[in-house]
Specification:
about 150 residues, 11 strands, 3 helices, about 15% helix, 4-stranded mixed beta sheet, Immunoglobulin-like
Length: about 150
């Protein structure tokens, strides 16, 4: 028996998506690389309203500058809800504070989801820090037009 995602509580949706995004047992048993030269920062967006990856979401990746933020790059998610390249990798991966701004209002408007004007969630800024530039940081966004969740993956 299946249940439409719209009938699930927000907590149940998050748990389902986290279970879906978890690595398989086979992937968990894969040996780790011997030496990691440098880390990387990646992201992806899951549209928990539709239960699918969010394709075509504009993402601004930023770093602090003075009293504000400087855009390092702007990218768009692919059909899998991921960016084609890491936001940071190699020598560019540095310890420090960063912000990813997910432009989700555009995504839901494009899908024809009825939204208020202005939408409840138009842009979702996620501020975080990289402490270990040799580590892998993954900052996904699970989002509906009215709620979101994020976590640090690897």
């Amino acid at each position: 028996m299946t249940m439409p995602i719209s009938k699930l509580s927000p907590a149940a949706v998050v748990l389902c998506v986290l279970a879906w995004a978890a690595p398989t047992a086979q992937a968990q048993q894969a040996p780790a690389p011997a030496v990691q030269a440098s880390g990387r920062l990646t992201t992806h967006v899951l549209d928990t309203l539709s239960g699918k990856p969010a394709a075509g979401v504009r993402i601004s990746f930023e770093a602090p500058q003075g009293e504000g933020w400087r855009v390092i790059k702007t990218v768009t998610t692919n059909a899998d809800g991921r960016t084609d390249q890491p936001l940071l990798a190699g020598e560019a991966m540095a310890a420090g504070r960063y912000r990813i701004v997910f432009h989700v209002g555009e995504h839901f408007a494009r899908l024809g989801v009825p939204l208020a004007d202005p939408p409840f969630l138009d842009r979702v800024p996620v501020e975080f820090a990289v402490a270990d530039p040799k580590g892998n940081y993954h900052v996904p966004l699970l989002v509906t037009p009215w709620s979101y969740a994020t976590y640090r993956g690897s």
